Fold:
Amino acid sequence: MDLVFKALADPTRRRLLDRLHEHNGQTLGELCERIDMARQSVTQHLAVLEAANLVSTVRRGREKLHYLNPVPLHEIQERWIDKFERPRLRALGAVKRRAEEAMTDKPTFVYVIYIESTPEKVWDALTDADLTAAYWGHSNVSDWKPGSRWEHVRTDGSGTADVVGRVVESERPTRLVTTWVAPDEEGREDKYSQVTFDIQRHAEIVRLTVTHEDLPDEGARADVASGWPAVLSNLKSLLETGSTLPQQPWLVPSR
Structure:
């Protein structure tokens, strides 16, 4: 544990871990591309991370690939974080996010819809590739574990993903948080937005709250403000009637 805390104390090493979290399995050369530091210095930092078991390496031919090992971080969470109350920490995190939004002036869109269903069915509708294809026109593909990549894949057979990102939180069936970015901007932290799905049961209905934050500008906010109600209305129809709306709601003219 002492080696882990020592490794995490340096901002460059934390940045290397962030790079591996975004894209695991990188060579030394790839990691050096985004670190303004001599190759030898980066090698030394990686050695400290390896000694702390935060990074593991695998040989592939003449290359050595570096992988993030989340186990020590999980142990820190179990020992130093889980003992505290999660709701209180989450509330503090929400206050922090709102304060940061006020400082950065990045727009946020919030939408609430009520569905006659169960939290489990709503969760599956958000994460099952076949169900999302039915009402969204895209398949949401992932194993939905925290840290995993997810893709918003077209259903035309091309395999093209129009949105990609990472799973930030995954607590079935009540809360899902993912980052969103265009595939050609993946890895550029300033281009990511974040979507939170909060699922709350009330008797025989579910309140689904979608919060889309860190949007780049008001134009992007206007786009999601028209897109989310259409998608979620189609989801509601599918869960309550067994079929989607007779026409694609996002094609309805705004005027």
Notes: The chain has a mean pLDDT of 88. The first strand starts at residue 55 and ends at 60. Strands lie at 55-60, 63-68, 109-115, 138-141, 149-154, 161-171, 175-180, 193-202, 205-213. The longest helix spans residues 218-241.
